[in-house]
Amino acid sequence: MGQRLNGYKSVAPIEFLKSKMGREATLNEILLLDYLLDTYKFSPGILNMLVEQVLKLNNHKFSRGFTIKVANEWSEQNITSLIKAEEYAKKEYEKFLQLQKRDNFGEIRELTVKEKEIINRIYYKSSLDEEILDLVISYCMKINDGYIISWFINRSVEFLENHHVENRVDAQALLHTFHQKYVLNFGRETYVNS
Predict the structure, then answer these.
(1) Distance CA 117, CA 128 (A)
(2) Is the same domain home to 89 and 8?
(3) Which segments constitute the DnaB/C C-terminal domain (predicted)?
(4) Measured distance between the N- and C-terminal CA atoms of the chain, rounded to whole angstroms
(5) Whether 159 contacts 136, CB under 8 Å
(6) Of all residues in the chain, what percent are helix, strand and coil, respectively (each to 5)?
(7) Residue 15 sits in which domain range?
(8) Which residues pair with 103 in a beta bridge?
(9) I need a surface site. Which of 7, 18, 45, 178 has the fewest CB within 10 A?
(10) CA atoms 32, 13, 100, 127: torsion sign
C-alpha cells in the first residue's frame, strides 16, 4: 500500500478532520465522527478518506445529513479497504466534476457554489436514479435560462418521486406532463373570490 494511503491510517479521525478544516472540531462534528465509527464500523483510515470526500463534495462542510448519506453509500458498496475506498471516492468525485460545467444552450459556464449545493442535495436526498436526476437537471436548466433554481428543481423531483418513476422514458413523459400542467400555466391561474 502506498505511503499516501498509509497517511490515512496513521491519523486519528478527529485530528484528520481538524487538519482538513484548519480549525478545532465542534462538538457536533466530534459526535458525528463517533456516530460514524460506532454505526458503520469503518476503520479510522477509511473514515478519514470518507471525511475528505465529504469535504470535497459538500463545499468544505462536514454536515450531518450529507455525511450520513455518503456513509450509507459507502456501507452499501461494502467498502472495507483503503484501496476500495480510494477507487470509489475517485469514481464519485469524477461524476461530481462532470456536474461542474453544464451546457447552457451551447454555452459552457461554471456552476455557482449555490448551484453545486442544490445539485448535491438533490443527488443525495432523492430516491430517483442518477440518469433520471440528470434529465431533471437538464430540463430545469433549459426552463430557467441555464440556471439551477432550488424551488423549481425540488418541485420537479417531487413530481417524479410522487409518480414513482423508474426509467428515463417514463421520466420524460412525466416531465412533459409537469411542463404542461405547471410551467405553461404558471401565472395564469384564476382565483375565485370567496
Answers:
(1) 18
(2) yes
(3) 14-88
(4) 73
(5) no
(6) 65, 5, 30
(7) 1-98
(8) 108
(9) 7
(10) negative
pLDDT digits (tens, 9 = 90+) for 150-180: 899 999 999 999 999 988 889 999 998 998 8
Which pTM value belongs to this model? 0.57
User: Cell 484501496 sits at which residue?
Assistant: 83
Give the whole-angstrom CA distance, residue 45 versus residue 3: 13
Other Cβ atoms within 10 Å of 120 Cβ, number: 18
The pLDDT tens digits of the residues spanning 71-81 come to 999 999 999 99
Residues 77 and 132 in one domain: no
> Same domain for 5 and 79?
yes
Return the C-alpha cell found at 99.
456536474
128 and 187 housed in the same domain:
yes
Size of the chain, expressed as the number of residues it contains: 194
Residue 103 inside a domain? The answer is no
Q: Which three cell numbers stand for residue 167?
A: 426509467
With respect to residue 104, please indicate whether it lies within any of the assigned structural domains: no
Helical H runs in 44-148? 44-57, 64-76, 82-98, 113-125, 130-143
59: left (phi over 0), alpha (psi -120 to 50) or beta: left
Number of structural domains the chain divides into: 2
